[in-house]
Amino acid sequence: MTNTALQIPPTEGVRKIGAGEGEHFDIADSRFTWKAKAADTGYAFAIYELPLDPGKGVPLHSHPYAEVFYILDGRVDFMRLTDGQQDWVSCERGETLIVPPNAFHGFANRSGAPARLLSTANLLHQAFFDEASRPALSTDPLPASPPDMAELQRALGLAPKYNMFFAPPPASEPSTATHDLSAD
What angle do CA 106, 107, 110 make, to 5 degrees? Predict the structure, then answer.
């Protein structure tokens, strides 16, 4: 009997994405970097890196696919709903948070130091970001400024097309997809 695994030729295209490398894109007041897009993984998953300055985050939302977060640096607090109540789970460097399909979740850097995370999701998640974002014009950090409301409204309007649903913000918070939580 022949070992068929030895007859399979090695795959071409193995490549390395270094620190600071990847496809950079902006949404509202946040800069993301694709580390692997779905086409790179046989459409199994996509991975983005997101630096989070203190006070930055993504509000409560859901989508019908799982998402996994891995904390590279700092601390990121994840909001979830437990029995209809908001509950925060803190994750620090080296920890992972797994979000099952359809689970409402959000996250924020509620510490005083920068944080950085990786997120792994699927092609539909990537497709939303690809349509809702704009290419980063440089690798320089984004200036601290409020999000462009027209850009933000466009992104929020596209979310249902990708089965992504944002919870309405509490009356005391501005309606933003990524917003400054330092006043919370």
Answer: 145
Q: SS3 of 56, please? A: coil
The tokens for 19 are 């620190």
Calpha distance 88→105 (Å, rounded)? 10
Query: What tens digit of pLDDT does each residue of 24-43 get?
Result: 988 877 889 999 999 989 89
Helices (H), 34-163: 123-132, 149-158
**In angstroms, how far is the first alpha carbon of the chain from the final one?**
66
Is there a contact between 23 and 40 (Cβ–Cβ < 8 Å)?
Answer: no
Is residue 93 within 8 Å of residue 124, measured between CB atoms? Answer: no
- Name all domains of the chain by residue range, CATH numbers in brackets: 22-136+144-166 (2.60.120.10)
Using DSSP, state whether 83 is helix, strand or coil: coil
Per-residue model confidence as pLDDT tens digits over 110-160: 999 999 999 998 999 999 999 988 877 766 666 566 666 777 788 888 988
